[in-house]
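Researcher: Sequence recovery benchmark, item below. Answer with residues only.
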């Protein structure tokens, strides 16, 4: 299926429309860059959005500078329960005027730590678009994606198979999705400087396939999080990004 990114009404970035809860990724336009802000102590999602309201006001930018978030949840959701969570989350965006008509431009990753999981969903990091100090236009965030193309249990790749072969199939599917999303945003997949892998399993040959399919890993490495995707029965998730700067809140 052919994909194309949509220019945000601000003219500062483009996004890859996906489902109602999030976009599949964002990428800056020339003259703009991304800054990642990391919560030293993650906050419950609603409280974190209030904190981001304050942070944007302090920076002298509108909350519409927010383009992506990274969440952590206590347990994997059932498919129906995940819909309920997404409705509440989407309302936080709508209340701030972050939707483009009825389309959600905000990219998102949401995973479940195996150890030290929060008691409720929290916001770990957020990404803001700003004017670039140089040419800009090189930053992007690809949303977290797991081994399915639709939010249905019967769409899961190698469903229920956590053998070596099953995990390899899952990983291969997700890696290709990362490549597809970054390409649709106008970037070569190897341009990613941050590659995150979220799984509770050891996947045979993972490093080799990452280097082969996302060559930037050879120079920048990748980060393995011992975490699960946010929905039951899913076993492997990834996101990739290139961000100019990071700050800790």
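Model:
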């Amino acid at each position: 299926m052919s994909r194309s990114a949509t220019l945000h009404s601000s003219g500062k970035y483009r996004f890859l429309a996906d489902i109602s809860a999030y976009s599949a990724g964002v990428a800056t336009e020339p003259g703009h860059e991304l800054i990642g802000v990391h919560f030293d102590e993650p906050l419950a999602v609603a409280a974190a959005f209030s904190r981001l309201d304050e942070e944007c006001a302090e920076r002298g930018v509108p909350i519409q500078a927010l383009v992506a978030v990274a969440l952590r949840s206590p347990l994997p959701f059932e498919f129906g329960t995940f819909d309920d969570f997404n409705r509440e989350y989407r309302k936080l965006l709508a209340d701030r005027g972050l939707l483009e008509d009825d389309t959600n431009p905000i990219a998102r990753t949401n995973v479940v730590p195996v150890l030290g999981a929060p008691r409720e969903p929290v916001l770990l990091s957020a990404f803001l678009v700003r004017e670039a100090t140089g040419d800009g236009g090189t930053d992007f965030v690809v949303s977290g994606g797991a081994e399915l193309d639709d939010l249905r249990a019967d769409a899961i790749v190698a469903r229920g198979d956590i053998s070596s072969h099953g995990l390899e199939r899952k990983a291969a599917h997700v890696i290709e999705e990362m490549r597809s999303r970054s390409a649709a945003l106008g970037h070569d997949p190897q341009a990613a400087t941050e590659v995150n892998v979220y799984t509770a399993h050891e996947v045979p040959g993972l490093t080799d396939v990452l280097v082969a399919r996302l060559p930037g890993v050879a120079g920048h490495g990748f980060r393995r999080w011992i975490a699960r995707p946010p929905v039951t029965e899913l076993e492997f998730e990834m996101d990739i990004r290139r961000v100019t700067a990071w700050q800790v809140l």
